[in-house]
Amino acid sequence: MGKEAKYVSEEDAMDYVAGFCVVNDLSEREYQIERAGQWCKGKGCDTFGPVGPYLVTPDEVEDFDNLNIWLELNGKKVQNGSTNTMVYKVPHLVHYISQFMSLQPGDIISTGTPPGVGLGMTPPLYLKEGDVMRLGIDGLGVQQQTVERYKA
C-alpha cells in the first residue's frame, strides 16, 4: 500500500496501491492439516512469504489484470496461471479489506496463487529440504529459494 486506506471505494482503490510485486505464498501443510484451527497458522513461519525482487509501480504495469504467474519446482513447471483468473481483482480486495481494517503504507496484500499447488496433486507433493523453487510474474520479476530445514 502506498498510503493509509480506510473505507475505500472500489472505484478509488487503485489510488492507494503503491505497486505490485512477487510474493512466494508458502504454506506449512503439517501445521494446517494436522493441527486444528485456521489455515493462517501455516502462512506466518519464519522466512515464509519472500517478496521481490522489485516493487513495480502501477504506471509501469500495462495490464495488472492479465499477467502470467508461474512456479517451477526443481526445474519443472508445476504452477501456471494468470491474474485474469483471480477470484477477486485488486481494486475489490483493497476496497473490501479496508472496510474491516486500516491498510497502512508498506502493507502487502497477497492476492492468491495459480493452479497447481502440491496439496491438490495426486498424490500430494510436499516441499523437502534441497528443493529449489523459482517463480515469477510477467513484468514483476523472478525469485528463487532453496528449501532448508529450520534451525532454531
UniProtKB/TrEMBL annotation:
SUPFAM superfamilies: FAH (SSF56529). Pfam families: FAA_hydrolase. This is Fumarylacetoacetate hydrolase family protein. The keyword Iron does not apply. The keyword Hydrolase applies. GO terms for molecular function: hydrolase activity. Belongs to the FAH family. Keywords: Hydrolase, Metal-binding. It comes from Psychrosphaera algicola. PANTHER family: FUMARYLACETOACETATE HYDROLASE DOMAIN-CONTAINING PROTEIN 2A, FUMARYLACETOACETATE HYDROLASE DOMAIN-CONTAINING PROTEIN 2A-RELATED. Residues 1-147 form the Fumarylacetoacetase-like C-terminal domain.
